[in-house]
Amino acid sequence: VNNANYMNYLEHGRHQVLKEHKVNFAKLSADAKDLVVTEAQLKYHQSLIPGDKFTVETEMVLKSKIRLSFQQRIKVGDTLCLAHTSTFIVWRYILCNVCACGRARTN
Known about the structure:
Elements: H1 4-20, H2 25-30, E1 35-44, E2 55-62, E3 67-76, E4 80-91, H3 92-95
Antiparallel strand pairs: 1-4, 2-3, 3-4
């Protein structure tokens, strides 16, 4: 399985956890308050083989009022970890009001 697919599997896992926490993506998008990945570090340990049955384990931690952290693992069975990642996301409407240097715009 191409390693680029892992990011899609992990995104689906993040969406599932947020859905469980009653986050409504359609409403966020309509209000221009989308969640945006700002950082992702993915470490591969072993490849998935076509036909493998796997799970994505996702743990979410609120880092601030606007920043979430996700720790995720792609596993086959209970013990074989194929990849793990640390991902950070923020609310897009906050990003739009911050310049590249990290300070709030004063328009």
